[in-house]
Design brief:
Elements lengths: L3 H5 L21 H18 L11 E5 L6 H11 L4 E4 L1 H4 L7 H15 L2 E4 L15 H19 L3 E6 L17 E4 L5 H12 L9 H7 L5 H18 L5 H9 L3 H20 L12
Parallel strand pairs: 1-4, 1-5, 2-3, 3-4
Length: 290
């Protein structure tokens, strides 16, 4: 039997620092409550007495527009499970001399199984691209092999958390029964959350009285990253001018963003989320994700 660890190298799993889960997060608790309900609770029941004979959850796909903090949220999810976890992407799986993605994934599965760990797949569409759009036969076979390994991982007490900004470009089979059957959408920040992000981002910086109602209203359709960039640019401009950060300075950088384009950008993701949410389970394959 081939020693996968020796042949393909080892992976370092993080022990979950649970206190990290207590930090203030840039998103409402709604998505974390859903994670507790859909993943943590059934997992705890399955590993306990399980009087209702609940199935063990396999994992979830977390998707959103770019700049919403998917990896941060996925890492927080992994820490909440209080088991060893690792975050990998295509680049890490193809490290060193090994160029066969599924072989690297097999090594990862072996390591995770020993620890009953959690695997976070970052930008999963690059690891499991939609085979309908892949022309190379060996690449399609690679995707099929990795999907089979994910199913084997389920049988070996591994939990998967995948992230993507392009669920429609991810292979449809990942959402079938027996794979990542939970789909979470990370929405654009609402008014309350935008206000929270601005307040937390400006905390500790020299500011004049900020009109939060004005900047929150003006930043509709902004992602988390958009808001953080606005604050960072306003802080830099104020530092160069040797003055406190004020509402006008923040508004100047908000207006540098094209409001019409951002509205269209948001609508694209909200519409996709609605389609994926309405089409539950196996019916999702009609739009490229099942």
């Amino acid at each position: 039997m081939i020693d996968l660890e020796q042949k393909y190298g080892s992976y370092d799993f993080f022990e979950p620092p649970f206190e990290e889960c207590q930090k203030a997060l840039f998103h409402s608790n709604t998505i974390f409550e859903r994670f507790k309900e859909k993943i943590m609770f059934p997992l705890q029941e399955y590993e306990g007495n399980n009087p209702y004979l609940l199935k063990r959850p396999l994992g979830l796909l977390l998707f959103s527009a770019p700049g919403q903090g998917k990896t941060f949220i996925a890492k927080s999810f992994a820490q909440m499970l209080n088991r060893p976890y690792i975050i990998v992407n295509r680049h890490r799986l193809l490290r060193d001399e090994n160029k066969v993605l599924s072989c690297s994934f097999a090594c990862l599965i072996e390591m995770a199984a020993k620890l009953s760990g959690t695997i976070v797949l970052e930008n999963v569409e690059t690891i499991l691209p939609n085979r309908d759009t892949v022309k190379n036969g060996s690449s399609r076979l690679d995707v099929a092999n990795i999907l089979d390994l994910i199913k084997q991982g389920y049988e070996r007490n591994i939990l998967f958390i995948a992230t993507t900004s392009r669920p429609q470009d991810t292979d449809a089979q990942i959402g079938y029964s027996g794979y990542l059957n939970e789909l979470f959408y990370l929405p654009f920040p609402d008014e309350d959350m935008r206000g929270f992000i601005f307040q937390q981002s400006l905390k500790g910086r020299p500011v004049e009285k900020i009109d939060y109602d004005q900047i929150v209203e003006a930043s509709e359709n902004f992602t988390v990253a958009n808001i953080l960039n606005v604050v960072e640019n306003a802080a830099l401009q104020s530092a160069l001018s040797k003055c406190n950060i004020n509402t006008n300075c923040i508004m100047d950088f908000i207006h540098k963003n094209n409001a019409a384009e951002m509205k269209v950008f948001r609508a694209k993701y909200d519409n996709l989320a609605q389609q994926l949410d309405v089409l539950n389970g196996e019916r999702r394959k009609s739009i490229g994700f099942s």
